[in-house]
Amino acid sequence: MRMGNWRSAHSYLVCAHMIDFIPAPARLPPDQRVYAIGDVHGCLDRLTVVHELISADLAERPVGSAVLVHLGDYVDRGPDSAGVVARLANGAGPPGMSTVNLMGNHEHMMLAALVSGEAETTELWLANGGADSLLSWGVPRSAQPREWPNYLPIPHLLFLRDLAVCHEAGGYLFVHAGVRPGIPLERQSRHDLMWIREPFLSSKLPFGPVVVHGHTPRQEPVVRRNRIGIDTGAVMGGMLTCAVLEEDRLGFITA
């Protein structure tokens, strides 16, 4: 479902039932559904609309068990990282479902900078959009790196610290970035789950479960036999994409 020219949440909600489903590369058990949202990067307005669309879809098409998975990269580059984290930390997503929040490489960079305050880690984060995040939390430009955590609410810091790195459901594995081909899932490194691109993206090997991931932006979702990529560049003029997985089919919600 592609509705990028629509201008209000109401307009999106009118068409919440218009999800076009295609055959999925894996399966979920009957009466289960997973909504998986790609990289948000501070785009609170888009995230709010996608949550509203999910609520409308769930109301129109009830299911026994529904899970919402956010695939990470809530912060950096966009206008309201603080607002995104506040929304997720407060559990303000769609009602009627459980929520899993995964850690992306940008949360990983942010935490390293906040914990260490060292030049190497802070410069890496700032070079990748960290300055936008600091601004959204009202951190003065004159503040030193070791002072930055003082400006973030403790619930926000705890939320970031406690993010998971993967989630499994049916025939799917949900991670931020991907997996390293040829390595058993139980031996995958946390770093790869949050950071990897190649050789994951070009691999045609089966990974066991089909990997649902973000991290690498594309204009449209990517559906392969072994992976589904749903980072569609919300912060770069693209869309925020949510994959809708149920039984043996797959659809998309975008805003």
Q: How is the main sheet built?
A: 6 strands, mixed
As laid out across the biggest beta sheet, the strand order is: 1-11-10-2-3-4
CATH homologous superfamily placement = Metallo-dependent phosphatases
Counting DSSP H or I runs of 4 or more residues, the number of helices is 7
Helix content: 25-40%
CATH uppermost class: Alpha Beta
Element string (H = helix, E = strand) = HEEHEHEHHHEEHEEEEE
Q: Overall pLDDT, averaged?
A: 93
- Kindly report the oligomeric state of this protein: single chain
Domain count = 1
Intertermini distance: 9 Å
Large-scale geometry = globular
Strand pairing plus helix content: what structural class? alpha/beta
What is the CATH third-level topology name? Purple Acid Phosphatase, chain A, domain 2
SSE blueprint and pairings:
Elements (H helix, E strand, L loop, with lengths): L8 H6 L7 E2 L8 E6 L6 H17 L4 E6 L10 H9 L8 E4 L3 H12 L2 H18 L17 H8 L5 E3 L2 E3 L15 H6 L14 E4 L8 E2 L3 E3 L11 E6 L2 E6 L1
Helix pairs in contact: 3-6, 4-5
